[in-house]
Amino acid sequence: MIRLLEKKTWLSLIFLILIAIEIFWFSSLKSVPGIKIPLLAEAYHFIVFFLFGFFLIISIKGKRNMKNKYFFLALTISILYALSDEFHQFFIPNRTASIWDFLVDMFGVCVGMFIYLTTLKNKNTIQSS
To answer: How far is residue 119's CA from residue 2's CA, in Å, rounded to a whole number?
Structure first.
């Protein structure tokens, strides 16, 4: 699956855009259904930003060899998107901006990117053997 996403970066980019739209849409809701379940909000933030970071790093890297600049570009875009998400929520009735949500978002992004980079490292190790 990852090789397909690397070869067809447009597919990874479509997933990334759909996730970004979904994040924006949920942030626009005055109240989110099911939010009273403990840790559901944190799980949601982690999962969607995990996917955001995962597809973003693949979209940026594509078929090219991994370079630090791709990682830092993906991290910078993720930070800016997570900050803009919290800023956007500040203007929605019954919603607030939260540093905790931002930290959970960044944890999700980092785990998503780490998993991709670990998979990439393992793939390169197997190919060199």
So the answer is: 9
